[in-house]
Amino acid sequence: MTTDFEFDPAFMRAGDPRSTTSRKALLTRLRESQHSEEKFLRARDDGDSPPQRPSVSPRGEPPRDWDVIVIGGGASGLGVAVDAASRGFRTLLLEQRDFASGTSGKATKLVHGGVRYLAQRNFPLVREALHERGLLLKNAPHLTRPLGFIVPAYRFHEKPLYQLGLKVYDFLAGPLNIARSRGLSRDKTLAAAPTLAGEHLRGSVLYYDAQFDDARLAIALARTVFDQGGLALNYMRVTSFLKYQDPNFPLSTQRISGVETVDVETGETFRLSAHCVINATGVWVDSVRRLDDANAHPMVKPSQGTHLVLSREFLPGDAAILVPRTEDGRVLFVVPWLGHTLIGTTDTPRSDLSLKSTADPAPLEDEIDFILEAAARYLTRAPARSDVLSAWAGLRPLVKEKEAEAGKTPTSKLSREHTIAVSTAGLLTVTGGKWTTYRKMAEDVLDAAFVAHLLEVRPCQTEALPLHGAPKPGTSLGASSGASFGTTPGRTAANSYAAASAATSFVSSPGHPLADTPEAADSPAASPPDDTPAAGPDASSHWASGSLGGGTGAARVPANDDPSLAVYGTDGPQVAQIEGADEQIVPQFDLTIAQVRYAARCEFARTVEDVLARRHRGLLLNARAALAAAPRVALTLATELGHSPVWIEQQLKEFAKAAEPYRVTRREGDPLPPQPIPPLPSQSVLDLPLAATPAEPPVPAPVDAEREPVNASVQLTPAGPLA
Ligand SMILES: Cc1cc2nc3c(=O)[nH]c(=O)nc-3n(C[C@H](O)[C@H](O)[C@H](O)COP(=O)(O)OP(=O)(O)OC[C@H]3O[C@@H](n4cnc5c(N)ncnc54)[C@H](O)[C@@H]3O)c2cc1C
Hints:
The protein is an alpha+beta fold. Helices cover 30% and strands 17% of the residues. The structure holds flavin-adenine dinucleotide (FAD).
């Protein structure tokens, strides 16, 4: 299927109308889609032959503007939109903020079966998630990678117990297993995880799961919606439902026939009809359900999970550490992520939060203390508050089982993890679940739409659908395909899964602590796992090319010349050709001016936070460095999107406010933080023209007297209209 709006960065230079008006083009498309039902009926009543459309309503309804409207641009909504569009349904997705700005950008970044569900003996759930893990590694190799986990054993019985459990885990993964788990001696454990506390350590079990970049995967999904002929728009809030009288609808006569949505940037309202409306708004599902039925029973109970990010020194090895049961019974992950160490998470009920607010939840002081204390017990060096580079929280949409079962609306619980409900007016709601299973959730939602007679039956296409940026099966990027990515000497590849894929080579590198062990013979580096005899053609070709990794690190992720562009997959060469590809913004990140431009031109970025939190993950890695980067990001975005200095000023204020919860305050007695972040010299972006503006003063960099200094003093007064 082709899309009538093509992203072609080759044509998009600053000043090109397509680069600065792409949102305008998308909104025009939305405007033109409106009232197709009225147009159809008017044409029919006037005796003209109405435009022919395939009927997608099993009940013979007149045509609608869209077949499917999805509300919510997180993992659940984007997955549903990709599924619907790839089945050939005319699909529209509306997100009130940015894609993955809710829970979906704040995950632990694991594509996993869930070892904790194994302990609960929930084998079907683990099997389903492990199958989905295998599919995602195949369908988005540029955004995922296998990752080894060390499960340390401090008590006599722990190692055999973990070994047994993880053998079951391997078995449940079936043909898509990454590599077999195995026991490690104490010495080998410490060689692989040198910062793991060694006192009383008896050894460990090494097993494999996978890691991904959640927000980048969300952007890839949004672009896949376009690739499949659909439309996905951020900054569009759904404010009410359209309803009509349908005497034939089996559930009630008042039937949802569309949504009213507001462009958050301009206030323009759109009324759009659809055969099927799907509520995939995570912890906000109940607010949206109440737009349909003011008395709807709440389905969701939010639970907050906080993560801390420290420097790589806290986990210099390549493997992650999983503590299955901390002293207070929680799971603790210490994970290498984009050149840093990610530690989490917590599970704190948040019934106190008003879900009317769209602001990010803030990590609680107790949560920060808990994670630091737990980490101190398992790491050789206890991290202090001043070591925390960034802290962030996400809200799990936990389904209240009683409500779902006893509520008036019919519900069908298709899995223990996610829940799908159909209201009497025909609103489909999906919530719960996890990132790993987003594809299966989406398949279940579309199947539920058929059961509820909202859409006609069409087969699911997503099991073998490469996501946007994935190389075609059997191909790879980089030198082998002749792709030429610009390189930037000295740039750290913190945004890179290609660089990170080296991590999976730890069992195979000659001289690596694990390479000379008898266990290494087991490793996929030595041979593809022989416990995967039933691998299908896809799976086996992935193994053959090393593209499922499993420890080889060889060619699974595109071998780009510039690994920091690997997350763009097949689009990497285009990013490298954009002006500013060698202009790094702050020394801490591999973010360049070209990447900011690309984010504005082709990845729907509208704000500084969109760029620094989700197109690049700087805010989640190092909040102070992100604040230092903000002025140049704002200026670049302003040149791309045609904004004035007033907009820049507003953006910097908003970003400083948004970044506030990511910064952990020191307590008395804590060591001093590192030196202020130096600015990079003024570069060519400052010479780019901005939109003509009223005479406003130049924008000051955000200053925060209460906090440790962040040097954000990039010169914002270029020659030109700003001067
Ligand atoms: C701390 C934590 C760690 C996790 N780690 C992992 C992990 O490692 N691996 C894993 O597989 N899963 C993980 N999960 C689970 C996973 O992140 C979530 O299940 C998933 O992201 C939920 O996605 P969602 O789309 O349902 O919700 P969200 O991502 O919250 O998306 C809902 C969207 O709806 C939008 N919205 C709300 N109201 C409206 C409206 N009126 N109009 C338009 N849009 C609206 C919101 O702005 C939001 O963007 C984790 C969860 C948490 C909390």
